[in-house]
Amino acid sequence: MTEPAPESAVALVGMAGRFPGAADVEQLRRNLAAGVPGLRELTDAELAAAGVDPATPGHVRVGGPVAGGVETFDAAAFGLSAREAETLEPHHRLLLECSWEALERAGYRPTDPGVPVGLFAGCAFPDYLTRNVPGLAAEPGGKPLLSAGVERDSLTSLVSYKLGLRGPAITVQTYCSTSLVAVHLACQSLLTYECDLALAGGAALPLPQTGGHVHADGDILSPDGRVRALDAAANGTVMGSGAAVVALKRLEDALADGDVVHAVLLGSAVNNDGRDRAGYPAPGVAGQAAVVDTALAVAGVKPETVGYVECHAVGTPLGDSIELAALNRVFGPERATPCLLSSVKPSIGHLDRASGVTSLIRAALNLRDGVLPGTAGFRTPNPALGDRFTVLPADVPWPADGTPRRAGVSSFGVGGTNAHVVLEQPPAREPRQSSGPHLLTFSAGDAVALAEVTSRLRAHLAEHPELDLADVAFTLQVSRGHFALRRAVVCRDLPDALVALADPERWIDGETRRRDPRFRLVAGPGSGSGETGWAETAAAAHRLLAGEDVPAPVPSRAGALSALAAGLTRLGIRLDESATDTIVVEGGSTDEWVLATLARLWLAGCTPDWPALHRGAARRVELPPYPFQRRRFWVDAIITPRPAAYVPSWRLDPQPLTGLESRVRAAGPWLVFAADPRGETLAERITLAGSEVTTVRPGDEFAALDTGDFVVAPGDLPELLRSLVVVPRTVVHGFALGGSPGDVETAAESWPGMVTLTSGAVGVLGPDLTTPEHAALTALTERHVDIGAAADVDQVLAAVLHHETPLAVRGDQSWRPHHEPCELTGHAEAVVHCGHDVPDLGGRRGILLVGPDPAGRTLAARARVARLAGRGRWTTVVATSDPSPETLGAVAAADHLTEVVLSGVPLVRPVQAAESVPVSASVRPRPGLGTPFVEPEPGLEQEVAARWATALGYEEIGADDNFFDLGGRSAGAVRIAAHWNLPATAVVELPTVRLLAARIAELRP
């Protein structure tokens, strides 16, 4: 830029993305410059894994799968449990990662960045929901997972929650223009001061990633897998996969704060074609021309000053021609040279909701680097180009002519929402080299990641010797220090930094377990080198730590201690003469010693004011982002040639008894409906565990007993509800154990989280199905336990506390239901029955059709009993609609099966052992959090921490740990609050042990 930018100018300060063939923006830049395509031919193995037959008529085996895939994820970095991670939709995953990286690339903390950050983004349809987790909503605990990690409505709010972003979080959905519309909204939010930093982007990750596409006459997909954008031979597009996010900031603020500026957004506009087009999905010339014209007017620049436009051009004959017609309306004949047009889509495909921001990133790179970009594969100009525009087959340098380089970026969505942004090259940044020494600080979630951070930083410094190490140090200090596992290096200059980063002897390592501890300065036992030595210490402290215009200290021991104390206090280090932790100061200490001391204070948990250390002169530079430690979290899609079929069975799943009594107490008060000795034994065991329990027994009329228990007759539940003194946290209804279930349906309505007990209503081992008439009760509530005749009471109690799936207890073991996929083949004949009874077929084969409802469960149980008794070779088919004759014939051919469940019926999905969700009974180490571990104070803090540890299943919990970062849920928060008679929102408002304990202490007499 050679002239002042308008006050409305916005700086692009950070970029992140994952693209076909490119794992980040820099690799994308290199690939485009070298002509390396992201679109490629898919292998036979990839097509087979995707369940695609390449012999399908019209199939094109070309695709653009996102680099790195979508199956792996660093759940620990974002504080997600294994189950949350495996059900997290791929768009949410990549937007989390890209938002984190964009902030780091901009030089800001990726979590709690310290300024209000807005997020504007959108994504494509969540194929993962329909292909991989179609039954998630029906699983226990599935609806919260669906709403927070799969629904598109939660896309931006989840990221804002996980990263601690406090600006607007708005999900944008305008089809292909989504991400550029998000950029426009982000700019408006910045200019109206809703936020000080904004993230904008989008993601499009169709599944399967490696399936190719099927071309049909008249559609927009390429018949040969090539994208010929802006070419006369354009005949269709190829959909690629990707996600990208940019970080934006008001230009004047970015320059004042020393931010990296990759490009300047001078203006943007959004509109819609309305009805002025051929149809809803068709583009409109007038609307596209208007949005470009408006964006130029907002930017305050003339069309002839724009040297290049990154077009939407996806390679369809109609779409490209309409876009060119619109540009011809705006860009008049007054140009001395044609305007360059280009499109990134021939290289990486059409990234749909991520395409606009990807085009913006490409344009920004070209402006920054002075490149006029080519369009891959371009040969023959589209006739609509005319003489006002040109297209290049390869990159060429952008010659300087004394005027700022400017570019436009277009993105047009199905449905007519159009967006255009006008960009300008960034302001020149003066190179500089600051004198040392310098303090490099960074952190990671584990030792492997920390080693990779170190090696990445060293490689980056070696590749960029032009970097000012003071700027590198400042960027690391303000953006890379939020993990507890930390490393610091003191170095003189860049060559010394390369040596130090490769030398473990020079690493200052530690794990932060406290927050802002206090320290006391003490003089060392030796005299150093006399007054001369203390003068050196005083000078070093003053040189590195003192504020501006602070007079030089007295060159003495007292002067050295005073200078060091004043300097550390200025940086926010808390000094206290009564503190037990000390900083030993010796005479003759050097600049390196001062910085090493500051590093050790940082490792101990202090939070230095890093900008103050640099006296306001530091600048941010772009550095490598955090190396996510990804592992596979994925639910595989089941691909079968027929409608999916599953065979229900039971798997051994003994419930852990560790900490049972403490869990029983945490779940109290209890309300137990007991009608037989097993119910009474259960109530007695709860009492023995030390929890309050109210027992309800069946009788002829309602009675409130002196013991606090109750007797109820049919219809007495309303009276019981009015009579309860204490609201129960856990309700167990076991009247069915005594033969008659009573008003169990009414009870289920009154207590939706109630646990229903039955006996012999399911067949785990076969003959144990003794009361098929109670099978309907197994569908009454989500939580259900079927108890065998000799069931161990502790195992029953542990099963009652289980929240994942229904369970059956036989002896001292628990069993959980499971659905195994089954391929139905062959054909046979059988009697098909869909009535309300199970007739006696003798030795004949029969198929009973039932629905997935309570009546169906009862009929299925009766059919199983009939089969065991020799009254017909019954196979029950559970389906939501009438199966085809072919499917029924295949079921009949597999007459060894007792029950078959067809697709569409909610299933109990198996949980993989390696990624199972730990229950609170199994004690786990405290997870890696961004919050350092702080030991709870004796007394109330330790009491609160112990209850949290029991509820969440961790060995220890720190005083500053957030309940929800630890995996806690709202229901658990309510139970914890109720234990201390606090409002239900107490843990939400006071989510750390220390805050909650302080509130409890305030309320105690």
The stretches of 5 or more residues where confidence is low (pLDDT under 50) are: 909-922
N→C terminal distance: 67 Å
Spatial strand sequence of the major β-sheet = 30-31-29-28-32-33-34-35-36-27-40-39-38-37
Q: How many individual helices?
A: 31
The overall strand count is: 40
Q: What structural class do you assign from the helix and strand content?
A: alpha/beta
Largest sheet: 14 strands, mixed
Helix fraction by DSSP (H/I, runs of at least 4) = 25-40%
Characteristics of this structure?
1005 residues, 32% helix, alpha/beta, eleven-stranded mixed β-sheet
Question: Could you please describe the fold and organization of this structure?
Answer:
The chain is of the alpha/beta class. The protein contains 31 helices and 40 strands. The strands form eight sheets. Strands 30-31-29-28-32-33-34-35-36-27-40-39-38-37 form a 14-stranded mixed sheet, sandwiched between helices. β17 and β18 form a beta hairpin. α4 crosses α7 and α28 packs across α31. The radius of gyration is 34 Å and the shape is flat.
